[in-house]
């Protein structure tokens, strides 16, 4: 039985959510769409196509999707060299690895973006794998990325946790049978995370690390 500690990246380990909001806001603005930043913020964490559909609706001109996504990607790319980890990110990953957990990232990022995120986290020595939305049929809130993460390390869903900052993360984890653990670092309210299935919520990775012995992680360890 392998315990997997699966982590979302944006807003969970790296402080990027509000950068994504601004870049999406500008991409929509350039295409002639007025989309409120608070609405974009709540959609962050969805794959690009799903985010656009969520914000513009299914009756939108879908021919614009690729250009919107490309504009967002280009704008966001200007921040790659300045991305910063959220407090305690690397220390938490290393602590879990030291306790025998297999650490896996579950993210829609790929290529240069994923490289920039991993550089910001600075814990490649304990990251056992990366499950990308590009590798599955459906991204979060579907459970597919979580299933993919488990497969990478032969993880047991009932003995694993998923740490994320959005309702999409919590829903994906719950659907996959993995314990959903929320962090507030991405800006989503505690109540929203709990209503989406979070069994525990912490301010950030540093707070989870400080409370690790009383967390869902320790509970699963005690079960054996």
TrEMBL record:
GO MF annotation: an example: hydrolase activity
Gene3D superfamilies: HAD superfamily/HAD-like, Putative phosphatase, domain 2
This protein's UniProt keywords: Hydrolase
Matches recorded under InterPro entries: HAD-like_hydrolase_sf (IPR050155), HAD-like_sf (IPR036412), HAD_sf (IPR023214), PGP-like_dom2 (IPR023198)
Superkingdom of source: Bacteria
A Pfam family hit: Hydrolase
Keyword check for Metal-binding: no
Protein name per the record: HAD family hydrolase
Species the sequence originates in: Streptomyces melanogenes
